Amino acid sequence: MTTQTAQAPAKAASTNVRRNGTFTRRWWREVSWRYLVALVMIVICVLPLLYVISASLNPGGSLVGSNRLFRTVSGENFADLEARGFWTWLGNSLVVCTVTAIGTVLMGAAAAYAFSRFRFKGREKGLTGLLLAQMFPQTLAFVAIFLLLLTLKDVFPALGLDSLLGLIFVYLGGALGVNTFLMYGFFNTVPRELDEAAKMDGATHGQIYWTIILRMVTPILAVVGLLSFISSFGDFLIAKVVLQRADNWTVAVGLYSLAADERTAPWGLFAAGAVIAAVPVVLLFMFLQKYIVGGLTAGSVKG
Amino acid sequence: MSQQTIVHDSEHAPPEPPPGDERPVRGDSSPARDFSKGFLVKLVLVGLIDAIALYGILTAIAVEQWAIVGFLVLALVAVNWAYFSRRTLAAKYLLPGLVFLLVYVIFTACYTAYVAFTNYGDGHNSTKDDAISAILAQNEQRVEGSQAYPLTILTDSDGDLAFAIVRDGQALVGTQDDPLAPADDATVESDKVTALPEHEVLGFAAVAQRQQEIVDLRVPVSDDAADGSLRTQDAATGYIFESVMEYDPAADTMTNTQTGVVYRPNDQGQFAAEDGSTIAPGWRVNVGFDNFTRAFSDERLRTAFVEIFLWTFAFALLSVLTTFVLGLFLAVVFNDPRVRARKLLRALMILPYAIPAFISALVWKGMLNTGSGFLNQVLLGGAEIPWLTDPWLAKLSVIGVNLWLGFPYMFIVCTGALQSIPGEVYESARMDGAKPWRIMRSITLPLLMVSVAPLLVASFAFNFNNFALIYMLTGGGPNFVGTPVVVGHTDILISMVYSVAFESGLKQYGFASALSILIFIMVGAISWWGFRRTRRLEEL
Q: How many CA atoms lie within 13 A of A201 on its CB side?
């Protein structure tokens, strides 16, 4: 932590000069309890995770049977997931989230490029409008989304209810959103001189966009894509409203169906599915931590 | 952006000319003259979109969805204009995202507002014409003394059931959706159809198997519902059924020809008799502000709604408050450089936030189960505490689980904010003799709030609509008794919307949409006030 300049001198003084009783007593008084807090918090954070991992390894586990942690360890639940259609759900989630992520990046980046590089009529208003459009989150409009897709089913069955493509399109409605602002800010940091130079050399706006700007901002594109992936992966409400048949469900809807009634729920199976679904997201999250906070700072919220 | 229209020699510019090559400025060259690879890709893509849109327009015309026709025509024009005009540079980049935004965000928002003023829902699903047809069809009876037709039951190429009869020497075939129509290629033996191309005659076993379906099947005689339908009761003989209801378009009344009762349309979108009895189904009408006032005017709903309303605010506020206090506390505690392995500690404490919320909520639901949950059975040694089934404990559990889910976020945010406060500030405060608590209150907190306050507002708005947590953890329960919609003590407004729209037996899209609009207004107003106070919008 580089910005701890305030306390750094104090630390230097205590470690280098006064290696004696005063220091030890002071350590006990001022530092030791912090480890205690850490211990308590980590137990609280990790215990539910250990519990679900243990339950996932407990064959044929009901809720009661899962209470003794790591009593039996077997991969049976993981093998049984197939019969429940879990892998179909995971596949659906991966398809939906990947396509959504790619679409979000492409459309969001294009819009950010337009806002960043072109000075057109209504640009300022467009930016404000984009911000205002975020005021009515899609979660609030789920009834209207349902009715819209119900009607669309008659015209484009592939975009109607109970269709993965239909769900993807709904998610893509959010492509021009917070992410666009994130990219817009980033695009503005790419010097305009680069564009000018390329234009001088005869590049079209398309060539500048695809071969210069996008190359320069690849990291932010990856981040936006992964953020979009995580957020659509975690969406439950809209997926539940749009998808109806079990083989079309995403992981969120499917796992909910497994755990819906906790007395009769195949708890071990649910736990196994939860572990498989959570691990990649957790890894992705840890990897993206600082950007996620950045994205949140820009106003988005993980859902 | 200036439009450069200086078109220079016809030859195609190399994508990456050697450095120092001083070529004249050259912008979008005319696509007609410049068949580059990019242009061909564009041509194919736009052509594809045009084809899909044209297909959509034709289908939408066929099913009479005029709004979709209108939208597709506009979209078609916009796409072609944007991509083939040279004057629409920004539109080329904005259009794709804009179309999605328009349909799936802006339209759905406006449509929510529109539906909020109608009685759209079960029993009022469609237009008046559809309702009249449905009423006529649902009140059919066999015409007394009418002719009996030997019936042939068929399935068409899609497996749908069809009826075939012979009337006046003419073979007629129809299905549920296609009224009876002459079938000249049918094979007729002694007044009964025995074969029909592309159809399969159902044998005795198949008929027995689909008995119920066959008895329920109603094949309209013509496109006009008043003409009645062909039905069967024994799967062997068909009779013409006609409606006991009669619609008079001139007077706009529905008359029951058996009882003589006359029904007139009322302003609730239903045919009603003088004694107040109505016929289902009704149709969609504008009901003004009924949906908005319903939560207060319906006595069975009022108490529940008020509790849900207050609880939503309490939940959102407490969620922000608890997560922020704990997150800030941890951030301060672990901002001390004397604590070792801070990175590892932080990573472990962020875990709850990294897991998708729906998974955590479901896991907690299991752990908090009264009879067999981990918390009661193991940690509390077999206690029987109704964590999720007692109204107040369930509220506490919801707040607690949300604290578990949400504190890491505040922890990260506060840690970041703390580290961005320059050290000199602390030093000078200490020089001035300020005690740690005083430094915290007068320096750290105010500086921290500058960057964190907008996030608290956003967090409030998010938790106000935290559907997944409530739905997964308690399902809104424990439920209220005697309310006309299924809602419970931990339901927040958004989960009440879901329940009203989909899970309360009768689907009431209008009422649900009105509640959505109420939420929008409240969250919008609070966020606007909050962001104004934090001056966030002005940064743009």
A: 18
